[in-house]
Amino acid sequence: MVQVSRYQLILMLIWTVLGTGIVTMPGTIAQFTLRDAWVAAFGLLLGAVMCSLVSLAHVRLFPGRSLTQAAIDVLGPVLGRMFGIWYLAYGFITMATIGREMSAFIGISVLPNTPDFLLSAIAFAVSMYLAYLGIEVVARVNEFIVPLAAVVSPVLFLLAARLFDASPFQPLLGDPAGAAWHAAVVPAFAYGLEFSIALQWVPALRSPRTLPWDILIAGAISAFVLSALVTLTVGVLGDPARYLNYPVLELVRAIRQGKFVERLDTLYVMGVAITLVLKLAALQLAVGEAVKDVSRSPERTWIPIPVALLGWSLSNYLFRNVFDVTNFILRDVPGYFLLTVVLLPGALYALRTAQMVRTKRPRRLQNT
Amino acid sequence: MSLEQDILARRAAEVAKQIAKRLEPCPDLRVQPWSTQRDTGVAVWLEGLVDADKLQEALLALRDSGGPRGRREIPRPGVATEEVGTLSAAVRAVLDGCAVIVRDGASSAEAWRLDRVPARSVDRSENEPTLHGPQEAFIESLSVNLAMVRKRLKSPRLKIETFTIGETSPCQMAILYEEGVVKSDLLREVRRRIAQIRVDYVADINEVREFINDPRFSVFPTTEETERPDRVVAGLMEGRVAMITDGSPTCLMVPVTFAMNLSSPEDYYMHYSLALPLRLLRHLMFWSSVLLPALYVALLTYNQDLLPTPLLVSVAAQHSGIPFPTVIEALGMMVAFEALREAGTRLPRAVGQSVSIVGTLVIGDAAVRAGLVSPGMVIIVSATGVASFTLPALGLVQAARLLQFPFVMAAGLFGLYGILMLGIALLGRMASLRSFGVPYLAPVAPNITRDMKDVIIRAPWWMMQGRPRQFEPVERDRVPRHTAGKWRRGRRWRP
Amino acid sequence: MTKWVTVSKRQRAITAALLCAALATGCDYNDIDHLYIATGMGVDRQEGHVALSMDLVQPGGAGNPATGGSASTQGNAPDWIVSAAAPTFEDAMGALQAKLSHSLYLQHNAIVLFSKGALRDFTMIADALERNRQLRRSQLWVVTPTSAEEVLRGATGQSEPVSLVIRDLVDEASRREACLASDELHVVKALLRPSGVAPLAVVGEGPDGSPEIEGLAYLRRDGRVDVVDRARLLDNAWWLGRTFDVRQTVAWSEGGRQAFVGVHWLRTSTRLAVDGPRVHPTVRVVWRGTGEVERWQANEKMSAESFAGLEESICKDVKHRLAEALDHARAVDMDAFGLANACAEHGMNLSEGDWKRIRVVYDIEAHIVHGQLASTTPFANDAKGGGD
Amino acid sequence: MTSVWAVLWAVLAALVDFRRWVPGSWREWLAWFLLTSLAIGVAIAADLHWWPKLGPLHLLDLAFSGPSAWLYGGQGVLQEE
User: Membrane-crossing residues (chain D) (predicted)?
Assistant: First the structure.
């Protein structure tokens, strides 16, 4: 019996959101505001709250069922599959986005001469292997990474904090509220809503009832970490944070401690690569579950390969360059994700409630 | 063989002839007729396996007593007896080191266990040496080994079940466990897997290990092998199952986790504060014995930016003029080092040590002087070797030796990125392994906080009142709670 | 148990291919001895061309115990300089690479040495440097009044690559005057802020050819440079932040007679605070210093009272120095001390040139901790010395 | 008897376990075929540099840039680099 504990779930969610979060979010936030960047990072919490509400409804109405299973339950095999396919498209596009972000990031920062598709192919292959091994293994790898991250990231934080300078934040909350909101949209709707992939993992959870609470905890921790990171980035880099693609990478590049610690950015890139692979694996698990439900298959071992293959080729095809990715995330993702993981499931649950009320009412009458 | 042939003949001489025919040619078979006032018969045994003096004594006693009439009437001072009813059983008994006593006119014979199987005496542990603590090690005799365990664990709940495995050459095998502590599912699983073993003969417990292993091809040891009775007893008290086969000085214990492979019995015999740095060191050394050459290759060929400038300049200076690419250089050196290491173990002990030392020094130095290998590479490869020597579990050493090669290749392909990706895949693989149901990376992943006090740190004994939860022991506490109450609160004896 | 499979030819081929593939190397494979490691870069301007000089490490050089005597063709120096000129920065890099037999490796570049002339095209070069991911963000940007190439070439033959020597020089100096830490991050950050002026360390060729710190240069975003020599370095450094371990000679008038007291500042700090109305703000310069007396040439006995008197005259002196530095900055039209920044942090965006009209008040407090050593030496009273 | 190649192959098969990667029922085959053919088609399209004017990304953009802009606060405030 595959079961994921609460601790593992929270860790998986945190890595899932922060995986790309630490790469791109500081950059997208800094495009809108510098002074209020630390506030904007808490937009993530907004997304977490929305996901938590959705999952609250989900675990009440469909204990032990994944989102796609729930859709098939409510809408029937045909319409339910349609929803499943819509959800699959969402999963694949997200996967492609992450894959493209990752290959671009690694290509730019450590392996400039290696073709991007090769870099993403390796990452997809490894994450496919993890997804193949199952959610339990992915959860354990997440757990294993934690002590390492717990040692390495504070060191990077402290080393960078020497260069910190509070002047970019003064006067406090000096930017108009609109700018802060614009900056918060992407963390809230593009990254915060990614917490919802936990709905696909529900069948494997040890205690699905606590899922909303776990999402909130994970959201709070990620928002806090992200805010600290954004604060540090803006404080150290100052104005240049506006035009740099990967501000955190530049932050780490700036670290110099004596003659021995001079360039740590490769280490940071490697750390990010780990989290990205874990994120890819987590998404593939969710998508694989959807494929399994849509094709009504009892097995899941055949799924990872085609899923990873499609994710990989889409990541090469959909986004021709990095700007496509940034544009997509900034322009389309907020609305797209809001519809797919909040509004549509919301409608689903409303429908279910209506169904239940309709079926329960006669029964109650009989009872009384 | 048909049933008819398997029946013992009524005439003892005929039986002896039949046995001899089965074993022929067999110069060490001895047949000696005996007689009492009432009976006559022969004794059949293999010379060398049977204690001849004892046998003659027993035969003498037999003659005085009037011969075997029934089992109970024969006085056999100090001799264990078994009845054998068939010819093949009689043959097996002879091969097993018994003297078979056949009586004329009887339908069954008796096997007298008078074995004097050649065996060495109990000695110090060679493969798992420690400075402190008990020193003795198992030998190749099952009964002696069991006695050594019994000697340490005087618990009535210590249970020993025996099995016979091996089609051609049957071999006694025992499983040991502490009843009331061990999880019953674990025990059932062990029995089930042992029942499935199909093998002609058992040379060493390794055959058992490979048959009952969880993953078929994993390089990681998912069973613990030890030659130390003290370690076995400690394992039994944690709710694990031990297996000993006759003829092997190694005991197998299941389940085992990755972290346990990095703990040495020494950790428990020293002051607990010393265990922390040593265990940290071993964890570090395991990973460096896997990754060090790969990291060196990656740093030299892809990620030079990670090296501090002075170090980079010095490494570049060392490397200038070396005709090979770094990957080839690394692989070549690693192969050479493995060859030296193998030579060191295979050669007679007196020569072996000098070969490995002289080989590393002389050949390494010559290679550096000739400009074939850079000094840095020699340092790295030998540091890798030294790192692997710090690991207490031999199985893990072999795993590290194997794994360093793919990692170097990955480093040659994609630098640090390649190492990292292979590393994650390896981690996934390790996380998916189980040893008799226990996740291999426990208690780190999945996280079992209570058990963390014996992973990197070794908590003082008075804090380890509970048995490791990862093995799901039936009795969770080593000492019943009411007696342990005051210790549990962390109070200790004060004068 | 184990079910053996019979293996077809195709599977055999796949296995063999996988085994062989494991021995290949990737696209970014770049062995360490096929690199020319650059530790420093000099930027000059030659008749509209950008001239780049690279300080390349020579691994076989004298500084390396590893190779010992095996000297290469360029002699025994730890480094050698290659120069090339081209109309743009990128072309110059290309031209440089064309002269080198291995690829140029920039990731260990420690300094960029600009000549004063090169800074006129500063924006173009800075953009190229800022966008080049191979270069470190922590590399130092340093100015030389003469030619960068000469500074680099003048010093080869030491035991360490010259650019590392320069880096250590600047590092050491920036431990005393924090404003000299002119790494790329700080310079770019300063240039992008409202004041738009960044301080850079100035390095020149000393009398024996080895580099030395010559002072401080202010660089404005448009490429204008103003060099402050070593004599006025302290005044400016006090404006620009912390100093540690600096020495000052204070003229102390005592009953009509002049005396000189040597003060050793253990640490000083300066910050700007903006007060007053939004229309006419006042910038308060808060200067705090902790020091000890190193030379005591006054006739008066050392006492708490005389220390109080001393602190007063120190305040006057510091204020004078700061005011002078500000006057100079105003004269050359460079908001070197970040008055506009301070106002912006206070929520006021000044228009061009407004910073000159801001009222500046000085809030200076010196704290002399002790000076026993200075007064107890037998030669204390006889020692002659003057202020500078 | 087993050959060396069979052993190597078995090791590989145990490590990557590809025999379990094959779909079982016709539904699984259908889903497998759809996903894989889509993946191959897309990969070929990328290799041939065939990006239609109205690609999937543009469709998404058409559909969702409006709602996203609404989330941003009503008007098209999106800055592009």
Answer: 29-50
